[in-house]
């Protein structure tokens, strides 16, 4: 249970969290409990948005495995965040510079998985201004084939998540 709703009801507390805060080097003592930093953050917020900045569904899901497991354990929700901004370094984590079709292939896959998992709230995009610029640039580039966002999934064999790893 988050602390702030007890004081400021109704109030929703959330936090953007880097995906790497679930590592053993980030164990800390908070209010007498020794846990991973990511678990403490999940304990004191209503939900977290994990900066799971990767370009494929499988990579995104692998970066949030621990937070997702803990969210299920404590009955909370996580949101996955995708990066679309132009980055000076570590460009491999952003959809910037890729055809928009790549982003529109990953988003519906993640949303489909979220529909089947109560601990996964959905997908967030960082940042809106960059997303608009990507969409605008792709709409003027006639060589890039774009498809509308769709949650239709033609492959129905096996669990949804297994198809994307």
What attributes characterize this protein structure?
165 residues, two-stranded antiparallel ribbon, disordered C terminus
Mean pLDDT: 82
Given the structure, what is the number of helices? 6
Strand order of the largest sheet: 1-4-5-6
Query: Helix fraction?
Result: 25-40%
The tally of strands reads 6
Apparent shape:
elongated
Strand content: 15-25%
Number of domains: 1
Question: Helix/strand/pairing class, anyone?
Answer: alpha/beta
The string of secondary-structure elements, in order, is: HEEEHEHHEHEH
Major sheet details: 4 strands, parallel
Distance between the termini: 32 Å
Radius of gyration: 17 Å
The unreliable regions are 142-165
In a few lines, what is going on in this structure?
The protein has 165 residues and is α/β, with parallel strands linked by helices.
Give your account of this protein's structure.
The chain is an alpha/beta fold and 165 residues long. It is 35% helix and 19% strand. It has helices at residues 4-7, 37-44, 57-63, 65-74, 100-115, 128-140, and strands at residues 14-18, 27-30, 33-36, 47-51, 77-83, 120-126. The strands form two sheets. A four-stranded parallel β-sheet has the order 1-4-5-6. Strands 2-3 form a two-stranded antiparallel ribbon. Helix 2 (37-44) crosses helix 4. The longest helix has 16 residues, at 100-115. The radius of gyration is 17 Å and the shape is elongated.
């Amino acid at each position: 249970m988050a602390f702030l709703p007890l004081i400021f009801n109704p109030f929703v507390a959330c936090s953007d969290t880097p995906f790497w805060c679930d590592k053993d080097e980030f164990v800390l003592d908070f209010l007498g409990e020794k846990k991973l930093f990511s678990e403490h953050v999940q304990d004191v917020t209503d939900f977290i948005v994990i900066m799971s900045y990767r370009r494929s569904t499988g990579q995104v899901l692998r970066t949030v495995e621990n937070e997702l497991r803990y969210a299920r354990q404590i009955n909370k929700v996580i949101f996955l965040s995708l990066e679309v901004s132009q980055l000076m370094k570590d460009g491999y984590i952003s959809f910037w510079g890729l055809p928009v079709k790549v982003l529109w292939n990953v988003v519906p896959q993640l949303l489909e998985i979220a529909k089947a998992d109560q601990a996964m709230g959905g997908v967030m995009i960082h940042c809106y201004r960059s997303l608009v610029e990507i969409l605008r640039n792709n709409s003027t580039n006639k060589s890039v084939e774009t498809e509308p966002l769709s949650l239709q999934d033609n492959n129905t064999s096996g669990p949804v998540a297994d198809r994307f790893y």
